[in-house]
Amino acid sequence: LACSHHHCAFPLNRNELCIWNTATAQPLRLSGHHYSISAVSFGNKTNPLLVCSASREHVIVWNLDECIEMVQEGLTPRGIVIGTLLGMVLHVKFSPDDQQVAVCAGNQIYMLSAKNEAILAELHGHLAPVTAAEFCSWEKSMLISVSEDRTFKARKLCPSFLFFSPPLKVWDYSTNQLIYQSAVLTAFPLLSLLIDEGNKYLITGCAEGQLWIFSLISDHNYRCIAHINLKKEQEKFCNKVRKSGKEIGEGQSTSKLCKTKSTRPEGSVETSLPILLIEHCDSLVCFHNEESIYSALNTSYFWIGSSTGFFIINLANFELEAFLSYKDYSDLSIRFAGSCALTRKAVNGKVLCLITSMFEDMIAVLEVNLAALVRTQQSGFLLCGNENSLSVIASSNLFPFLGNHYSSVINFYFARGVKSMVKDQPLVFHHKIKSSGYTAAPRMTMFIPNNNLKKNAVSKWKTNYKCKIKEYPLESYPPTKYEKETSVTCKPTPIHCIQYSGDGEKLACGLADKTVQIFSSNLTDTCNVFSGHDGAVNSVGWSHDKKWLVSASEDRTVRVWSVCNNEPALILGKEKFHKPVRFAQFYFIDVFILLCCGAEFHLLSFHLDTTKDDLKRYKQRSVCKLVQKFLMASTMEITSLSAVNDFYSYLVLTAGSNRALEVFDLNAGCSTAVIPEVHTRSVHQICQNKGSSFSTQQAEAYNLFMTTATGDGIKLWDLRTLR
Description:
Keywords: Membrane, Transmembrane, Transmembrane helix, WD repeat. The chain crosses the membrane at residues 586-608. With 723 residues, the chain is mainly beta. It contains eight helices and 48 strands. A hairpin with a 5-residue loop joins strand 28 (350-357) and strand 29.
């Protein structure tokens, strides 16, 4: 099967080629083959539009404009025979300029002229039938092929032939010298191939539903950058569908694939998902009306055609965006496809999909509305019970659900702190005293963030900030050599955590020897050493005003230190936590402390008082009180936590040992989004682009992204869409 912008090509009566014009719905029959047609392909240019068909005895190129003229004149249309008796042909492909045709016949690839019967080159090296071949548009002389021998090859057609052969080898054809070799990709035959010109990716799929994506950038040495298991991606997608209750398929309640339980009934057969087709997807049609939800309009998407349906994969995160199952369409008699094709460009927002039955001589044409398909399946996935979209910047009153908690904290502060500091003295009123407010309604919110700063204040703050921090030159390359190193202790000691202060002047380190050390940013001297923990220090965090440092340890304690004093200003003891505290930080511009312990994280209010009472010098005057606990669902332990402290933000990001990422909206007091299986391993670090709060708009612009890191790699996420 083959599709172009307005035409579909498929065999009719086995040896007759039918060209169907989708605009006029007029079929054009082309005769010239005696054996069954096994491969069809359209040319890359539209004027003239060429189509190549191949069978065991002939390879023929047809000029459709000339064929239509012959039919109108009452003549039998004829094509140009460019190859004879090449064997069983599984794939044909035009070169970018339509001057050559690559014919995959048996274990070989023949380079034929598209104008006459001439073999330009014969490419050998595969050990099994070649199933697909693609030309590299930015390297005019390069051809890449895949085969049932489970390898792909890249061939340099001139001046000498370079090709990769099993497992993955680079050869110089003129000297037959091996240059590069890699392992075999899979135990199953490779069936399909696509080259993404924008990202310079090579995408190939096998008969077992596995996808590999390789980088074709010259200095990347064909490195594999992603491996996708289509069945697992489908299961993740179906879990999202079940949770959101969305409908998939026209006229169907829920996809039948998504209704399938995780355990198969006894006696049932598990079907594989062979990758029959990989093709570009017209992403602008899918997402041009979803700018508020999908921000990366320049992201590439591609279709995956399988025996059970079509899938849309996002090349930015390698995740499934939407899928179409043949079983969801009651009017479609084909349940399992033997081959498929689709139009690369959408016409009136719709894409034509051409499929053939695996068991019958039957062809069906599906008209798919891309925007409707994606919209019905994607909306509502991320927001679990919260209809409002996520915003990094706080835009309303803070924590209305915490009003009672905050009132008790204020009363606690007054009883322990303020009242004890008032000395006995005569009470004299020299001016009017405002009412104590007993008759007014109790205050239920803490305060409203001041997001509307005046221009003068913003510019002054911005100037001071720039004077302290040197901006990294964007035109420079990333640093590759270290400038200076220093030893933190006299003996080898692991460093568990490091963090720069907000102005970049100091660096705090948490060590396995139970200490916290502060260095100047240029590592010239040690500013201070804090000791007191009975276990390794897991995390350190600076306050927004750079005066305080919070540390968490394996000894199940959290300490807040004054940068100018070696003694802790606040100690949260072991009796408050049942497990070691993995992470602690200041939050909401030093109003709260966030810390994670086990599968939950705590929100604490605190008041720091470093003054000393001569009679009770060992009694801690600083106070702290638990405001709320938040439990991360279905996990044994929170492995990473991140929140913004540089400006007012409600979002707290957590990652658990279950490999999930969960977003909490503390203004609503609940979890607002869950992303399961963000990595194949547990996330050990979440990093946000916290930026600087020059203004609400600038902070919003700076805080759109975060990264998650595990042993299997790093992913970049858009916080507005969590994709």
